[in-house]
Amino acid sequence: KKKIFSGVQPSAIPTIGNYIGAMKHFVDLQDDYDCTYCIVNQHAITVPQDPKKLKQQTRSLAALYIALGLDPNKSTIFVQSEVPAHAQAAWIVQCNVGIGELERMTQYKDKSQKQESVSAGLLTYPPLMVADIVLYNADAVPVGEDQKQHLELTRDFVNRFNSRYGNGNQLLVLPEPLIPKEGARVMSLQTPTKKMSKSDKNIKEYISLLDEPKVIRKKIKSAVTDSSGVISYDPIEKPGVSNLLTIYSAFTNQSIPELVKQYDGVGYGQFKTDLGDAIVAVLEPIQEKYYALLDSDELDAILDEGAKKANLVANKTLHKMERAIGFAR
Ligand code: AQP
């Protein structure tokens, strides 16, 4: 079976953007691939985090993974900091990428602009992500559009590492990004020209996977549209409505042209009511499962087992990298 690796930062509760761009696909991929899904808490501390909240959000994200349908019998589910090989391999990666390559990353440029003081970790976030991916020999990485550049860096690193240290052997696996055709970049509900982000200060910009049904409906009702009153897909001229169509399509598996036809001559009010209902219909049962799992021993058992399995695989690759670069006696 081909291998998949991906992760989400426990920097806040995931949004429907994280769900549509990545997490929804994590579930679908489980049957055909050997999947490893991580809660990347080491990535989360590249910007300041409150320790208590980080701890709680780490557990929360683990419960959400399972509630969404990740099955610990099929996939490995674990917390990044419980597998020391990530930080160890990241060091080797850092020593084999240039500062210039890292300074060019758009996520670094965006996020560093928003910080009062920028941590070194924010710059070296991509090498840690490279380590995450290569340690599990991932053939493919399901991510949203914003992570595409980091995947390109990963591929550059793998090619470089293999040619520098491989003596003609393919030491590390070259991964492909798996970016969905639709919904790879879900936009903010209030500012549909910028990406929806879970750490946004204004909670009206996003819908979190744990928002209560009435909050979900309200946020959709107040989503920015335009004055034309026509439901059609045109991300440039009608970014708000187009974003809502993308979300609608992801939550109902109806295609956008189908939806446009269905809502021909219908007003934004009705469209938004139906969309709110469609999101609630998917998220309500997930939330029920989430709350049942959150404080359970079962969740700890899943994460313990996940860390055990992940450590075995990750250490094997780490040792391969170490031997290749001359960390041996
Ligand atoms: N708006 C989005 N649309 C589609 N996919 C998205 N992703 C993020 N935002 C969108 C994808 O979700 C996965 C997990 O994201 P992450 O936790 O690694 O962090 P991020 O990419 O930095 O996402 P956020 O929500 O903006 O988090 P914060 O605010 O903490 O930085 C990734 O696959 C990502 O592509």
TrEMBL record:
The keyword Lipid metabolism does not apply. GO terms for biological process: tryptophanyl-tRNA aminoacylation. It catalyses: tRNA(Trp) + L-tryptophan + ATP = L-tryptophyl-tRNA(Trp) + AMP + diphosphate + H(+). Its EC number is 6.1.1.2. It is found in: Cytoplasm. One of its GO terms (molecular function) is tryptophan-tRNA ligase activity. Keywords: Aminoacyl-tRNA synthetase, ATP-binding, Cytoplasm, Ligase, Nucleotide-binding, Protein biosynthesis. Its main location: cytoplasm. Homodimer. This is Tryptophan--tRNA ligase. It comes from Granulicatella balaenopterae. The gene is trpS.
